[in-house]
Amino acid sequence: MIADLTRAERLWAMLILGALGLIGLAMAIGGRNDLLGIHGWIVLAAGLAGFIAVMRGRDAPEPSAERLNEYYDAPTRVGLILTLLWAVVGMGVGFWVAALLAWPDMTFDVPWLSFGRLRPVHTSGVIFGFGGNALIATSFHVLQRTTRARLPDQISPWFVLLGYNLFCVIAASGYLMGLTQSKEYAEPEWYADIWLVVVWVVYFAIYMRTLARRKEPHIYVANWYYMAFILVVAILHIVNNLAVPISLDSAKSYSLFSGVQDAMTQWWYGHNAVAFFLTAGFLGMMYYYLPKRAGRPIFSYRMSIISFWGITFMYMWAGSHHLHYTALPHWVQTLGMAFSVVLLVPSWASAGNALLTLNGAWHKVRDDAVLRFMALAAIFYGITTFEGSFMAIRAVNSLSHYTDWTIGHVHAGALGWVAMITFGSLYSIVPSMFKRERIYSQKLVEVHFWLALSGTVIYVFAMWNSGVTQGLMWRTYTESGGLTYSFIDSLVAMHPYYIARAFGGLLFLLGALTALYNVVMTIRMPAPASDDPALDIPAKPALQAGE
Prior knowledge:
CATH topology of the largest domain: Cytochrome C Oxidase, Chain A
Number of strands: 2
CATH architecture of the largest domain: Up-down Bundle
Number of helices: 17
Largest sheet: 2 strands, antiparallel
Structural class: mainly alpha
Order of helices and strands: HHHHHHHEEHHHHHHHHHH
């Protein structure tokens, strides 16, 4: 990694890491009587470790000019490994918290093993650790191939990848210490939020600088989805996390919003985090890797563009459907419901476009588990978006809200859509990224596919049954107008479903472990004797920025 950097870039890296270490030291000293101090030591350790590593390699020879004739894939390779590591961590914690709901005594009276502290470690580990690293790694790969231009420099991709993972570590460690803003998908405190903004600005700059240097006149649709993911997530993150710290030496802060405004801002963020982090970015992934693997062009390129603008516009208005039957003005609830229903059109256009792309290639889906991952992801995307629009209708929401039906819906999307397209994409590029002829074991890919599918179906069906049962029990009245069932009665009825949920999660975790083993063994395979990169190189001349 350090050998790839020019000497000027190594100097910049030392300056950045030195500044990061000083910031960590200031946090550690200023927050010595607060949890902020612990995070300061983590930041200081990260800065010092990086600074020492660069210092040790600062006298390495200047990288050859021949590097400019190849794509810069080192950050993608590391990002793929980090993706799988976070998958195992996030899904492992998810299995544990699922088990806690079935067997609550498994906390063993240890505070950091409680559901309240581990649950955000699971959600953030899977969404931001697993999903975020997958998006960063694949976006760097797709961006270069679709523009036929090398990334503009060697240092900024590493800053984004490693800086983002530092954010994930700070977030997860904070949750275990009980440090949280108590906002869904936005739990990290103010200093972590500021750091993520810095990382994200550099990420967006990489995209813009590479597009400005592209050798292909057309910007392929996958890049539109990746750009929407980067830009809109930045806007959502900044607005929803506007907060005032009680002091600069304290981790605690208070939101700039309060009451119903805070709720509306949170669910404008929350639903659009689903829209642009867990949908738009992964649609970009799908639009590149699925046709590439199938060897077929996109069924309708025009439909892909139309659905992009439909999703981008309509999703922004749908968040208020999370707040039916609350103090939010009725017309705002209705607006969110209406846009949620109409949103089905561009969502199904994308799902249908993916499946129609496979026309003439269904025999490949039958024989190739990697392509089957992607096809199944498109199917689950269609199912989940229909279910989301249906659940946004106020009458349906009166039954589903606050029940496990919502949990089933979220995991149909997270496991069936996000994880499936991610694993399919990873399997498709790991051999080429590590210059291997093939994946280590195609049979293990098959095993992973069936573990993932079985785990998803068991999990989702358990939560669908649990949620509908909950909703019906909570709204059943006696002849005198009292509740027929107490809350405890409904909780007892959920127990078998919670055991099934934990089992489904365990199967999915075993699939992730299988993927990690398969990828590690692929990397350990001997490289082929000769490597001809002629079909996978930038268009000439591949110049650095400013040259």
